[in-house]
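Issue 218. Parser rejects a valid record. Input:
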Amino acid sequence: MPMITGYLLLQDDPSVRPTSPTVLILHGNAGNIGHRLPFCRLLADHVQCNILIVDYRGYGRSSGKPTEPGLYADAKASLEFLLDRTDIAKDKLFLFGRSIGGAVAIWLTAHLRSAILRGVIIENSFTSLPEAAQHIFSKSFGSFARHLLPKALFINKYPALDLMREFVCRSSVRPRFLFISGSADDLIPPRMMQELAHVYRFSGSDNVNLGADCGSASPSSFLKDGKDGLVCFPGGQHNNTWLCPDWGNVVSHFIEQACACPSRTVFSGTI
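Output the parser choked on:
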């Protein structure tokens, strides 16, 4: 059994800790949790939240080898760790997933037996790993090259779009989703975030019509009256969208709006 390591960053003031939101961060493919500490600092400063960030198996100081089922299991175990604690609010739990972590967050949300999440934040993620790889391969070797990477060759697929469609079609009670997309993402095409946001907005519709139908908002318009959906950050690249102006304000606004709604979270003792 792999040993998973992480950082639990609680609010300094013990009087606000039990009532603050808590965010489980599922990071992207490169690096480890040590590289994400500046990001955690920015998030904590803007949101005043508790944070759990973990390294999947095979990352950082976590043992084992990374696999798709393994990453899913690590995310589930991390959420169970939070639910076992007595010093955080179990009705103010959020997921944040970036890149491959976004696909893991969608899987975890779709497979929960209880409606225990207030919100889910997906940043610069993809519709599936094979589609993302085909896009990257095509950028390097031309559009014909995508045919040299048939999807059947991939062992790890991370089918985020299919999982999202399945989840929104069957779930009557679901958390709010915030989709954060850097318009200059140099790795994953922003259209993939648009597709994910479209499925969320239209409850699993197969008619993926990109553009305005995705409910895309600018950071400034979202801060005025936004509650969920897609927010596009001009100039944001794959790994630095969180440094864009108003990123922290958008995330803080989303979490505040989600926490202000009457709680529909239900924890039955098992996830």
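Fixed in the parser; the record now loads. The chain is about 35% helix and 15% strand.
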